[in-house]
Amino acid sequence: MTGEEIDCARCDAVCCRLTVVLQGDDDVPDRFVEVTDAGLHVMARDEEGWCVAIDAARMRCSIYDSRPEICRRFAMAGAYCRSVREDYAESGRRGIPLTMY
What we know:
alpha+beta, single chain, globular, two-stranded antiparallel ribbon
């Protein structure tokens, strides 16, 4: 994404479609949590693949102050952010693979 300024206000929120594995110290309300077949606690996603903590009216995280640690470490314009955005752009903006990292 060379030459492009990155900020969350001009993003398709692709990070909010990634699998977020919860850590032991995360304090996420139970209604936002799913347990995978492998027994991992993850942020739940809706039928379109979006994190259920998204406030759709504002396109912002509704639990920002208590968001999971992995979300806190996902730095805007950081290397991982740029990589995810690049994958998304190369996919023709049809979505990104919902894989665990």
